[in-house]
Structure formats: structure tokens, C-alpha cells
TrEMBL record:
PANTHER family: CGI-12 PROTEIN-RELATED, TRANSCRIPTION TERMINATION FACTOR MTERF15, MITOCHONDRIAL. The keyword Flavoprotein does not apply. This is Transcription termination factor MTERF15, mitochondrial. It comes from the Eukaryota. Keywords: Transcription, Transcription regulation, Transcription termination, Transit peptide. One of its GO terms (molecular function) is nucleic acid binding.
Length: 458
């Protein structure tokens, strides 16, 4: 009997040679497995050597590569599974010597998998000593590697660009900043870079210290050509009667002015001169000069365009609501975020109601929206209140419509409600100040009246 039971148990054992039963770490899975619980990768066992798959997966795990993203990464870059794991490990070691952090490795490998090709990375191994002397940040190295792989550049090109920037007298921090923000500078030859620098120094009157500040703040100026961009832009400034001193002052204050397109400043100034608004608003806009006023318009147009408006609609909004220029760009972005994310309106509604950008957020937009939301929650609104009905009414009208009939809205409306309520009537006792004093008759007045009455009797 015992022999029969033993034979039965042997015959009922599962076939462990079936590959699907070995895919999971756990021998008895109780439910569907997450990607982080599965031994990676699973879909390449029939195409690629299993030893390569395991070795490359373990290598990427040791580099700090997220386990949840490992499967998708190998699926998109299956050519790596045919590579020699030892050569990939050498590429990783070269990368680590450049960035010296796991965050750098995972970021570079995820965005640019070709850095794992040893044939390319061994070229960088010979130039590491020269590049390390510039103390480039991990972000700068990552950006430069991506540009070099995209445009098939060699490490010698990067080293030549670094030396040319250093020869121009730029500080180490400025060079790092240029490579972080504008890594495509390596595409320019040293002669072209020097030509742009000399043009800026001679045409605007900059010194080396000023040049370092400009490139550190706005490295993208190196992307513009001299003949087709920078020279026409400076000629436009001269045609608008802006002197060299004023241009230099504004460029040092905000180097992004050099990124203006030819004709943009002229268009902005033309818009400002055609405004139909109160004279006090115009004075505030032009308080710091016409140059800065026109540039402020350009910044706000770019801000509105970034959130989905066309350039034409953005210019139209500013022309209809000039007070937009008086608010900082950060404040405009705050209003747009509140409009879209909290109030659930489209960005295009600003074109119809441009007054939204010209009113104070703390005093008008937020309190009014809170009142309307409270009334909507208690069913106190007959009709839906749109952006027009929320923004355009005066303080007194909005107070009488939505705040005064509901005492609980007084606390929501806050200080604004107290200010409005205080202006509804005259202060108590004010009528006493306007009551005329009683007139006291003198003897001379009595005689005049008596003589007048006697003349009437005659």
C-alpha cells in the first residue's frame, strides 16, 4: 500500500520543465504579479542568450535603474541584449567616472541608451582627464553626451569648445552654465563663438565681466548669428531712437532682450502707443521708459502664448486690458493656473474677458470665486455664474447681488465686504455737520424790515 501511494505522488508532480512556471520568484503565486515582482526580462528568452539577459539586467539594477522601468527599457533597446555584458559594464564604468553618481547613470542611460556602446564610450575614456579639469556638472555632461550622440560629434569637439570658452576669459561657473542651458554650443566652431563675443563687446560696449553675466544668465545668445540676427536687432534699436547707453543698460538688466525677434519690439511699442485707457495707467506703463515698457509687453505675450493663446489673441488681450502689463509674469501665471485648474474655465475665455488679468487676485478674484462656490453648494444660485458675471460687476454690485442677501457670505468675502459695507451710507452723525446754524437777528435788521413794510403800506 505504501509503495502505491509513493508511486502516485511521483506521478502527480508538475512538469517543472515548462518555462512559464519558472518566471516568478515565488514558486506558488497567490495572485497576479506586479512588474516589480517579476524576474526581468520575460519576453526575450527565445531570441537572445539567457546569460546576456540576466547579466545586463543585473548590471542595470546595480546602477540604480528602477526595476519597474527595466522591462520597458530593454524592450525598446533590444539590440543591447546581443552585446557583450562585459563591454557594457566598461561603458558604465566610464560613465560613472564622468558623473560619479547613480542618479547621473540612470538619467543618462534612460534618455540616451547609446552611451552603453563601448566603441563610442572608449573615445571618452581618453579625454576624461581633460574634461574633468573644467568641473562640469552632471547635468552639463548629460546634455553634452546627448548632443554628441545625436549629431555624431567626438569628445575632441567638446574639449575644443571648452578651451575656446575658457580662452575668451569666461569663468568656470559661466562655462558650466552655458553647457547646462545651451549644450548645442559644441556645434559651433571656436571662430564663430569668438566672432559673436567680439560683436557683443564692440557693438554694445560690454566688458568681460558684463559678458560673463550675460552668458551666465542667458547662454542662448550664442545660438544667434551675427549677420542674420544680432546686427539687425541692434539696427532696430537705433531706428527706434534708443541710444547705446540705454540699450546696454537694458541688456545688462535682462540679457533675454537679445533674444527678441527683429520687429517684435517695434510692434509692442506700436501697440502701447495706440492704447485707449486712462492716462494714469499709461504713465505707470511707461514709468521706466519706452524700451522696458515694450519689452514687458513681449514677456506677457510669450507667457499667454505658452498657455495656449495665439500671438494675435495675446496682443489683443493686452490691448483691451493694459493693466496686464502692470502685473508680474508670475502673477499672470498664477491667475491662469487658478482659472484653468480651480475655476475650470478654458484659457480661451481670457480672450473674451480680458479684465480677468487686470484685476487683483487677492482682493477680487479669489473672494468672489469663494462666494460663488459657497452659494452653488447650498443651492443659492438660480443661474450659472460665468466668468463675465464674476469679474465685470463693480464691488458694490457684486456685494448687493451675492453677499448682502446671505449673511454667511460676509465672512467669506472678508475685508472686501467690510470695505464695501462701510461705503454704503454716510457715517452716523454726519448730518449734524451739515445742519445750518440758526440766524440771530440784530436791531438793525428789525429796523430794515420795519421800514420795508411801511413802504409797502404807502
Amino acid at each position: 500500500m505504501a509503495i502505491r501511494v509513493f508511486r502516485f505522488l511521483l506521478g502527480s508532480r508538475p512538469d517543472l520543465s515548462y518555462p512559464d512556471l519558472l518566471r516568478h520568484f515565488s514558486a506558488k503565486p497567490r495572485g497576479p504579479k506586479l512588474k516589480s515582482q517579476i524576474q526581468f526580462p520575460l519576453d526575450f528568452t527565445q531570441k537572445y542568450p539567457q546569460r546576456n539577459i540576466i547579466s545586463i539586467s543585473n548590471l542595470l539594477k546595480r546602477c540604480g535603474f528602477p526595476l519597474s522601468e527595466l522591462h520597458n527599457f530593454l524592450a525598446k533597446n533590444q539590440y543591447l541584449l546581443n552585446s557583450d555584458p562585459s563591454r557594457i559594464e566598461k561603458s558604465v564604468n566610464i560613465l560613472f567616472s564622468l558623473g560619479r553618481s547613480q542618479e547621473f547613470l540612470t538619467s543618462v542611460i534612460s534618455s540616451c541608451p547609446k552611451v552603453l556602446e563601448y566603441e563610442y564610450m572608449k573615445k571618452w575614456e581618453t579625454e576624461i582627464s581633460g574634461i574633468e579639469g573644467f568641473n562640469l556638472s552632471a547635468l552639463a555632461i548629460k546634455n553634452v553626451l546627448e548632443v554628441c550622440l545625436k549629431f555624431e560629434l567626438e569628445p575632441d569637439d567638446v574639449l575644443a569648445c571648452l578651451k575656446s570658452l575658457q580662452a575668451l576669459g569666461l569663468s568656470e561657473g559661466t562655462v558650466v552654465r552655458v553647457f547646462e542651458e545651451f549644450p548645442t554650443v559644441v556645434l559651433s566652431s571656436p571662430d564663430r563663438i569668438q566672432c559673436k563675443i567680439e560683436f557683443l563687446m564692440t557693438s554694445i560696449g560690454l566688458v568681460k565681466t558684463d559678458l560673463g553675466r550675460i552668458l551666465g544668465s542667458y547662454p542662448g545668445v550664442l545660438a544667434f548669428g551675427v549677420e542674420n540676427r544680432l546686427k539687425p536687432l541692434l539696427n532696430e534699436f537705433k531706428s527706434l531712437d534708443f541710444g547705446l547707453d540705454e540699450v546696454q543698460l537694458e541688456v545688462l538688466r535682462d540679457p533675454r532682450i537679445l533674444g527678441l525677434g527683429v520687429g517684435e519690439l517695434s510692434h509692442c511699442l506700436k501697440l502701447l502707443r495706440s492704447l485707449k485707457c486712462r492716462e494714469s495707467i499709461k504713465e505707470d506703463i511707461f514709468r521706466d521708459g519706452a524700451f522696458r515698457a515694450g519689452y514687458q509687453v513681449k514677456l506677457r505675450v510669450d507667457c499667454l502664448h505658452k498657455y495656449g493663446l495665439t500671438h494675435r489673441d495675446a496682443y489683443s488681450v493686452i490691448w483691451k486690458e493694459p493693466r496686464t502689463v502692470l502685473y508680474d509674469v508670475e502673477e499672470i501665471e498664477r491667475k491662469i493656473h487658478f482659472l484653468v485648474q480651480t475655476m475650470k474655465f478654458d484659457v480661451e475665455s481670457i480672450v473674451e474677458i480680458p479684465e480677468y488679468l487686470g484685476v487683483n487676485f487677492e482682493k477680487q478674484i479669489a473672494p468672489r470665486f469663494q462666494v460663488i462656490e459657497h452659494l452653488r453648494s447650498i443651492g443659492g444660485l438660480g443661474d450659472e455664474v460665468g466668468l463675465k458675471a464674476l469679474i465685470r460687476p463693480s464691488r458694490l454690485k457684486f456685494y448687493n447681488l451675492y453677499v448682502k442677501p446671505y449673511p454667511e457670505c460676509e465672512s467669506i468675502y472678508g475685508r472686501v465686504a467690510r470695505n464695501v459695507r462701510g461705503k454704503l451710507g454716510h457715517p452716523s452723525g454726519l448730518w449734524k455737520l451739515f445742519k445750518p446754524l440758526p440766524y440771530q437777528q440784530s436791531e438793525e435788521d428789525d429796523m430794515n424790515i420795519k421800514s420795508y413794510m411801511e413802504s409797502l403800506e404807502q
